[in-house]
């Protein structure tokens, strides 16, 4: 968010100057008025001072920091500590510059009389709509401490899932980097050196060696063409995905990829059931809960089903029916939702379904790593075998020729 410089006067007429980070000038004016100040002037800062360089934060706020914040603030609120005091303690403990600055602004806003949810809305780049709406529901119902604890658990589960996926992809990614490095090294160093040696002897090179030499010459002479082509493809795909049609098509294609598509489907179902259970259990209306849950789903195909279900529910129909008609949600999900609607325990039923699919995702990520490792090893073996055949086949031919020459010389002598 942009930074603003302001000057204002208090009730005694004393002039006060300072800096604030907010969405726009109107937001700054509202914050100052909440503090009981009379606004004199507000200007947006176009650059930062040298002393502010130390406050620059790269990478945003780590999920772990958010989990710790929610968990500790929940503990303090449940213990009866005033919210402003809890925020002050958390501000002192936080080490991330961006997060520390944000919590400081939230604390000031709460001290001025705003609710915690409204204060969080000024930091939308850190706190999403689900977090803000849950906190708003917690403040309305008087269960803020419990809601903060549930939020911490939700963020913790999301962090664990991201960690497992990264862990499953780490080893295959390392193998891919090694394969690329080996190919580049051989094409740029080994093959040209061997080509010079073979040219001294003359003779016809094997077909596989000719192919490898041609590839090496292309790498050496036209590497910039290859680089431009790769960058163009990557940028083109990115631009295409950023369009509504491209995003929808790419999400649909991803779901059809073996292994990966199954994992993404299970992740989306786990996300849907977990978030909806959390929102309904916090007292939000089912219509608002479905809207927020749909926006939390990254895959458009799954999101569209939930938005359609929201429209059906607003007309008085069952939530289970549009879910059952979908090609992306299994029968188990719609059946369990129907049971939850009949018993009035929809949030509890959804929570059990989310636990089941979380376990499915855990198992699927472990299996993905197990499957991908041998695949990459086979690819690496084939690449090295191709290059080795191209390098050593002429050597075998040369050794045969040299043997024939030696035999002829021996016969003559």
User: How are the strands of the largest sheet arranged?
Assistant: 2-1-3
Helix and strand succession? Answer: EEHEHHHHHHHHHHHHHHH
Distance between the termini: 91 Å
Counting DSSP H or I runs of 4 or more residues, the number of helices is 16
Task: Report mean pLDDT, rounded to a whole number.
Answer: 81
Oligomeric status: single chain
Radius of gyration: 31 Å
3D shape = extended
Topology, number of strands: 3
The share of residues in extended strands comes to: 5-15%
**Largest sheet report:** 3 strands, antiparallel
The structural class is mainly alpha
Low-confidence blocks of residues: 47-58
The helix content, as a percent range, equals over 70%
Give a quick summary of the entry:
This protein has 413 residues and is mainly alpha-helical. It has 16 helices and three strands.
How does this model look, in words?
By secondary structure, the chain is mainly alpha-helical. The protein is built from 16 helices and 3 strands. Strands 2-1-3 form a 3-stranded antiparallel sheet, with helices on one face. A hairpin with a 5-residue loop joins strand 1 (3-9) and strand 2. The longest helix is centred in the last third of the chain and has 67 residues, at 346-412. The radius of gyration is 31 Å and the shape is extended. The protein starts with a strand and ends with a helix. The model is unreliable at 47-58 (pLDDT under 50).
